[in-house]
What does this fold into?
Amino acid sequence: MRHFRRLCVALFVSIAAVGPALAQDSAFKPGTVWTFTHIKVEPGQLNRYMDYLAGDWKKLNELGKREGFIVSYHVLSVNNPRAGEPDLILAVESKDYYSNAEQLAQQKKIEALLAADQRKLEAQSAERNPMRKFLGGMELQELIFK
It folds into this structure.
């Protein structure tokens, strides 16, 4: 039994030592991070919601680009959405994942840009509820072949 344990420990140590070396020989490397937000626009609210996106939403993303966090952002229209599918997908491409400190620093800049604190921003988001519903979203990371 002791020999079996020693063998298991030796195997674990060798795998732990070889793992990073194998990762260096990977055929890919991590790329940019994409966040997709799925939006269902309420009937008759598309132009009003697009006005918001062309205003504050665009300002926020342009700030992120100037700060070097955001690479690109897009509003995508879903052609012929089926029941339960979004009308719009908001896509934001970031250089990498944010750390907590970066998130807090960016939040302060957003508040300054929009002249609003977190409570006011939440209230403004609630005011957009008659225009749209969030159907969820996803976060993806591109894998780039070497």
Remarks:
- Confidence is low (pLDDT under 50) at residues 7-15.
- The chain has one domain: 28-145.
